[in-house]
Design brief:
- This protein has a single domain, classed as Glycerol-3-phosphate (1)-acyltransferase.
- It has nine helices and eight strands.
- The radius of gyration is 19 Å and the shape is globular.
- By secondary structure, it is an alpha/beta fold.
- Helix 1 packs parallel to helix 4.
- About 45% of the residues lie in helices and about 15% in strands.
Length: about 280
């Protein structure tokens, strides 16, 4: 009989109950706040507090790089890779902007969390039958309210930490709306909670903020234009994760000597730039 590791017990009997309490209490405050604050600003601060509590309780330290590249008060579309469900608390707790996510419609059915998403003005999209014109109108409404968006264009969490191909749909909308894109590289979060595993571990996550990129001015952008733009942003995001992985490898080699170099080389193969070394120490 295999006994589950300590962090499984900690997750099931401490973290899940604690996060449930955070979600119920702050979700309720968030929902109530939307009756007096229609734009959802107070609801967002509840979401940031929820994110900070989750990270602190789990034992996740976040190193934010490049935050000086963006200006407070501006409106951006943040484009990020997706390693873990912890990516959302990492980004919400770290970026000082009024943020709204674009997510699948089914999230709106979750008690408290889903109710918060709906009341606070997040974009929940039916992926099987997306209403592109309706989504674009809501984008313009958010931008006019000085709200920024978060998009995970891979469409799902990465099972192995690799940055998968970015889907073009969101980029077509960004081209049509003429919005400024800010690529984000998240590294190390998958070691906090891997996809398909009911266990969380303390860890270190790096959030790298890249230079803002204005969407090209195209009168009638096509799907090919969106794919080209998506590939450009994907390369930037992947490069940031690669950089963080290389820094982790260099740190291990510095601590343990040249003998560690042979063991860390596979970490950088096949675009698997995930910071495995830091997560597996």
């Amino acid at each position: 009989m295999n006994i589950p590791p300590f962090h499984w017990w900690r997750t099931v009997f401490f973290l899940i109950p604690a996060i449930s309490v955070y979600t119920i209490v702050l979700g309720t405050l968030s929902i109530l706040s939307t009756f007096v604050d229609r734009k959802g600003h107070a609801a967002h601060w509840c979401a940031r507090a929820w994110s900070w509590l989750i990270l602190a309780t789990t034992g996740v330290e976040v190193d934010v790089q490049g935050l000086e590249r963006v200006r407070r008060g501006e409106t951006y579309v943040f484009i990020s890779n997706h390693q873990s469900i912890y990516d959302i608390p990492v980004i919400f707790a770290s970026l000082p902007f009024q943020l709204r996510i674009i997510a699948k419609e089914s999230l709106g059915r979750f008690p408290f969390l889903g109710w918060h998403l709906i009341r606070a003005g997040h974009l929940l999209v039916d992926r099987r039958n997306p209403d592109r014109s309706g989504i674009l109108k809501r984008w313009h409404r958010l931008v006019s309210d000085r709200l920024s968006l978060i998009i995970f264009p891979e469409g799902t969490r990465s099972a192995d930490g690799r940055v998968n191909r970015f889907k073009a749909g969101s980029f077509l909308l960004a081209l049509e709306a003429g919005l400024t894109i800010v690529p984000l590289s998240v590294s190390g979060s998958r070691h906090v909670m891997r996809k398909g595993r009911l266990m969380t571990c303390p860890g270190h996550v790096t959030l790298r903020v890249h230079e803002p990129i204005a969407a090209p001015r195209i009168d009638s952008p096509t799907t090919d234009d969106a794919r080209e733009f998506a590939m450009r942003i994907e390369q930037i995001v992947r490069g940031g994760v690669m950089l963080d992985a290389q820094m982790s490898v260099d740190q291990i080699v510095g601590q343990h000597g040249d003998r560690a170099a042979g063991n860390t080389a596979p970490l950088l193969e096949n675009a698997k730039f995930t910071g495995d070394a830091a997560g597996e120490r």
